Description:
CATH superfamily of the largest domain: VC0802-like
Largest sheet: 6 strands, antiparallel
Shape: globular
Helix content: 25-40%
Strand content: 35-45%
Distance between the termini: 7 Å
Structural class: alpha+beta
Radius of gyration: 15 Å
Amino acid sequence: MAIRTELNLRVPNSPGTLAGLCRLLAEERVNIVAISVEPNGQMRLVVDNHVRAASVLRERHYQVTERQVVFVPIANGPGALAPVLALAAQAGVNIEYAYASAADGNPSTAIVLGVDDASRAAAAAGL
């Protein structure tokens, strides 16, 4: 587990918006590590350079907020997530949301956990 900074913003729910935002970050050499987009336009991003990404997005008049989340690399297999969630539960950490994906056949993945206390969650995992 690691604590990472997640960027939160709202984007229009219209064709091309997501493509344009991803292209903008790519042009700035910012790699998107994890992404979640809701139907209401709420977007969450974990990137390799959150300072640069937030700056670029703010220059384009996006209202960006930042939040500490837990970023958990795990094996891509049945039951891999359960021990991580058990550690959070034992520490009394509430998981407010989560997002992840894994490619078929890839041996590893990562999950982003939006928690009520990222520091306590990381401490529970021994970080």
